[in-house]
Amino acid sequence: MKRNLPLLITFLVGTLIIFAEFIPHKPFGNLSGGLETWFMIISGFAILLGQLNLIKVNTIKISRKAPNWQYYIICIVSFAAMVIAGILWGTRDQTGILKNSQGVVSWLGLKPFDYFFKYFFENLSATMFSLLAFFVASASYRAFRARSLESTLLLIAAVIVMLGRTTIGSWLTGWVPESLTYLHIPQVAQFVIKYFQTTGQRAIMICAGLGIVGSSVRIILGIERSYLGGK
Question: pTM here?
Fold first, then answer.
């Protein structure tokens, strides 16, 4: 019963959602809307649970002096600063407990939450993605090595697209006559992006959609039970 009841609820809710998609009328439409409201409520509690888990995990690592435990202190302090700033002064579109925040806004130029987000979080995010660019370049080098016909085609397409997206591509083929503009590297790169890349992306999206449908059917029918904590 402990496992059968969640399986029964999952089957009924999943079946109801499927019927509501194809028959958006009473009673399926109203029931589906109610379930979506419950989903939003549960998602809110899940966010709160995630925040509590963040505090718990970082506190344990600090108390045990885990490697680089100083960074976990920064994480908790940053999290607390954002929460306190949001609760007290609110955000750009929402007011906080201290509704009159004109003094702080005139001093910082923004509400504290928006100030932290714009001048700390956005800059840190830009730094992190800038560093990731080097890892992407390293991974691309390993993936693009011409070991087979497929990797050779991938290497050629990648070089054409990269050159075509920069001024170097225009400079290299600038001498080509206007009657042969289709041989310009930017034009070739646009051709590759429009037909080959788009085709590949659509194939991936279709396969991902089929995978989602397959996983959903397995969950609804009770074949996939990993969400219950078992195998």
Answer: 0.62
